[in-house]
Amino acid sequence: MKKLIIIAAALLAMTACSKSDFKETQYISDPDFPGLPIYSEMGYNTFGSYINEQVFSVSSYGSNRPFYLVADREHLTMTLYGWREGTNLNMIFTLPIDTTYHLEDYHSLLALDGKTFTIDTTSTSCNVKFEGYYAPEIESIYSGYIKFEKVQQVLVDKTDAEVVVSGTFQFRAFTYLGTRIDVTGGRFDLGVDNANFVNFRR
Amino acid sequence: MSGKCAEAVILHRQTNTIIIMRKKILLWSCLILLTGTAATAQETEPKTSWHHNLYVELGPKFTSHLSPNLEPFRPTGGWGAYINVDSRMRTWQGSFRYEIVSPNYHWALRTGLQYGFNYKRIGYKQAEEVFHTMDYVDTEWYYFQVDNENQLEYLLVKGIEQHSHYLGIPIELRYYFNSGLKTFRMYLAAEADLDFLVGNRNKVNFLNKDGMAPYAGQVTSKYANPDPMNASTYFGAGFQVGDLNGIGVGFNWLIHLFEINGSTGMLPTKPKFAGSKLQIELVIPLK
Q1: Residue A179 near residue A135, CB atoms below 8 Å
Q2: Exposed/middle/buried for residue B191 (C-beta within 10 Å: 0-12, 13-18, 19+)
Q3: How much is the average pLDDT of A50-77?
Q4: Which of A32, A107, B115, B240 is least enclosed, having the fewest CB within 10 Å?
Q5: Do B29 and B105 lie in a common domain?
Q6: What CATH number did the domain enclosing B155 receive?
Q7: What is the pLDDT of residues B98-137, one digit of tens each?
Q8: Does the distance separating the beta carbons of A42 and B81 come in below 8 Å?
Q9: A156 closest CB neighbour out of B78, B82, B154
Q10: Beta-strand relationship, A180-192 and A197-199
Q11: How much is the mean pLDDT over chain A?
């Protein structure tokens, strides 16, 4: 319950965030991957991938920064609020985090720079699930990864502004009905600060 | 006897009068002849001597430039974001020139000393901007990315300017068509300018002016400074109005042909057909 309240508070903070265009989604189409934003490491607040050749991407509607990160003692959860075929679909990554990462606040995300997490159904690996209408229920993950290609601090006029978390992901999963789900071309470029980072460890 | 004497006196006086009249006629004839000769000499003088003129010229130079380096600018606009940046270049040139013109007033060679002020700006695209104003809209600014090895760093920038001053030597060849018409002359011109950079100032307009001036170099380092020397060629036409022996005015339009050497800096100009320059000229005959 406490977790839900904090998540709701984080979402409220997202919708009420500053009008600065730094928090806006700056969506630039990738000509090589139709329907997806370009891969970037600039904090454009975009993400996207193909799910069985359907486009899953950040929405052109809604609030700024449609994603948030939540850390607890063992996991870092990254939720991407996207759209697929005109309906809301959330992609939720749960990464195993040991104490070496010390995810105290959003600056601690810098420790993820260059890290790659294997995605499968074992308890020590990253896990993925979908939420939303018509969201496929994953029963098992065959193979995949999420890589934090670049995690860097952003300074604006010499003062701390946010941390940009950018990277790539892809995986193959199966539903309870045995349907294969291929997630390919995944990329994310997210600006994170206190408005969309929650730490349960404290 | 006295009657014969009187007749002789009268005859003598008439003879003297005739002689005096002949002398006067001769004198006047000589004067007229001399005057005529002098007049003829004056008319033929322009065909045997060169003309020398001094010019004072002033005018704008319109230059097309290539797109500057926009990579440091963070895109804006949300969905379908793009880099909404405007760039412009304006140049004013003024010169003193000496002209030597052939005796038949067809061919002329002009050279002198030319000053040029070149203004370049990269700033916000302003739909409401009046053509002649260079003011920024205070509410508009950019995230400008500067080099930082470990972090992603932006400075809030409203615009970047480059002010360049040149001293140059123009060399121009002209061909006047209708030299017989003293009050209106048309010509074709070919010009080569050799301009030397004598001063350059880069300026950054920060959104937050307090304390940001020391970091201007981080912004301007993304752009080149002008080369110390810039040479270009022109071809064009013009006309002059005014008596050959009096002060006249002219209008000169030259099209930029190609750059021989040099870069204008922050906004690279097109190497060929980069624009044109208009010059209003004041012609002062030296003799």
Answers
A1: no
A2: buried
A3: 85
A4: A32
A5: no
A6: 2.40.160.20
A7: 999 998 889 999 999 999 999 999 886 554 444 444 444 4
A8: no
A9: B154
A10: unpaired
A11: 84
The mean per-residue pLDDT over the stretch B208-236 comes to: 91
Same domain, B215 and B280: yes
Q: B2 and B94: one domain?
A: no
Whether B213 and chain A come into contact, CB under 8 Å, resolves to no
Q: Which residue of A has its CA nearest to B152?
A: A154
B54 and B9 belong to one structural domain = no
Q: Residue A15's pLDDT is what? A: 40
Distance CA A107, CA A165 (A): 11
pLDDT grade for A20, boundaries at 50, 70 and 90: very low
The last residue of a domain, from among B45, B64, B80: B45
Q: Do A156 and B155 touch (CB under 8 A)?
A: yes
Picking from A21, A27, A43, the nearest residue to B80 by CB comes out as A27
Contacting residues of A for B78, CB less than 8 Å apart: 21, 24-27
Report yes or no: A29 at the B interface, CB cutoff 8 Å.
yes
Report d(CA A121, CA A141) in Å as an integer.
Answer: 6
Distances (CA, A) of B168 to A19, A144, A159, B171, B267: 50, 66, 45, 10, 20
Q: How far is B211 from chain A (nearest CA, A)?
A: 10
- pLDDT at residue A169 in the model: 96
Residue type, A126: C
Q: Say how far apart CA B223 and CA B157 lie, in whole Å.
A: 15
Query: Is B150 an 8 Å CB contact of chain A?
Result: yes
Where in the sequence is the domain holding B39, given as residue range(s)?
A: 1-45
Q: Please check whether residues B145 and B65 belong to one and the same domain.
A: yes
Do B189 and B58 share a structural domain? yes
Q: d(Cα B189, Cα B279) in Å, to the nearest integer?
A: 12
Name which of A19, A21, A24, A162 to mutate to probe chain B: the one with the most chain B Cβ atoms within 10 A of its Cβ. Answer: A21
Domain shared by B40 and B129, yes or no: no
Mean pLDDT of all residues belonging to chain B: 81
How close is the nearest chain A Cα to the Cα of B80, in Å?
Answer: 5
Asked whether the beta carbons of residue B212 and residue A157 sit closer than 8 angstroms, the reply is yes
Is B4 in a helix, a strand, or coil?
helix
Is B251 found in the same domain as B138? yes
